[in-house]
Amino acid sequence: MDRRSFLTSAAIFSAATAATAQQSANTGARHRIKAVAFDGFPIIDSRPIAAKAEELFPGKGDALITSWRTRQFEYTWLRTLSGRYLDFWHTTEDALIFAAESMRMPLDERARERLMGTYLELKAWPDAQMALESLRAAGIRLAFLSNFTTRMLDAALNNSGLRSLFEPHLSTDRVRAYKPHPKAYEMALHAFGAAREEIVFCASAGWDAAGAKWFGYPTFWVNRSGQPGEELGARPDGIGSSMTDLVNFVSGTFG
Taking the CA atoms of the chain, what radius of gyration do you get in angstroms? Predict the structure, then answer.
């Protein structure tokens, strides 16, 4: 099953929330935003992973990263659909092994550990701290709503000195279902004790932005690499290239 086929299935799977999603899209701007739920990568800079892949496999790092990331997310979707959840750390490792084998690349234990270990060395994007502090100063509550494990999220925040700005992580490990399953997005409703229209979801990928819109959240896409939007019938409420753009979007939704 390719990405678009899966996401189309997910749209059907989310049909029970479609009416609410449309209502939120029409009325969200009239509600004061109380919280922002983040995917990992609007805040966490993943570029060191690609750099490590190129270091270990000169001239082949980009190809490995592309294959690895594709399989990584396909595995999360397939595991959710089949009810065979495995946490993101191990799913990511499995995807790496498959990607290397499919490319006939010699991935020994040392290289695998170095690539996986990079996930625990990641730090925030340079624009993250000031934006997050601005949101907190405005009384906005912040939490990750991510496929990452708690350990992976804790590492990034500790590496960046941002731990005090966030509430407990909403890792998909809690519900054993990866995004864009509605159970994953639903975690923010319970954690923040707020309505859909009072919670902004901040995505780093077009498919995740679509999933959040299907669920009914006002959605902002931090599209750092200028990717086209997914053709899934669900557009984010705002798009920008930085965390500063997110702050401006949230500020503009205050009622």
Answer: 18
Of 87, 118, 149, the one marking the end of a domain is: 118
- CA-to-CA dists, residue 50 to 57, 69, 157, angstroms: 10, 11, 20
User: Where among 88, 118, 148 does a domain terminate?
Assistant: 118
Kindly report, residue by residue over 103-131, the tens digit of the pLDDT. Answer: 999 999 999 999 999 999 999 999 999 99
Q: Catalytic positions, please?
A: 39
Domain span holding position 213: 3-44+122-252
Judgement on whether residues 11 and 64 belong to the same structural domain of the protein: no
Q: Which helix (H) or strand (E) holds 144?
A: strand 141-146
First to last CA, the chain: 42
User: Which residue, among 40, 41, 56, has the nearest Cα to 115 in the 3D structure?
Assistant: 56
Inter-residue contact 244 to 227 (CB < 8 Å): no
pLDDT in tens, 13-39: 443 334 334 444 444 444 689 999 999
Of residues 209, 158, 234, the one with CA closest to residue 42: 209
What does the CA dihedral 65, 99, 69, 5 come to, rounded to 10 degrees?
A: 140
Q: Which of 239, 221, 244, 162 is nearest to 39 (CA)?
A: 221
Confidence tier at 62 by pLDDT (50, 70, 90): very high
Q: Looking at the structure, tell me whether residues 10 and 129 fall in a common domain.
A: yes
Q: DSSP assignment, residue 216?
A: T
Cβ within 8 Å of residue 117, ≥6 positions away: none
Measure the CA–CA gap between 169 and 120, rounded to whole angstroms.
16
Looking at the structure of the chain, the number of domains it has is 2
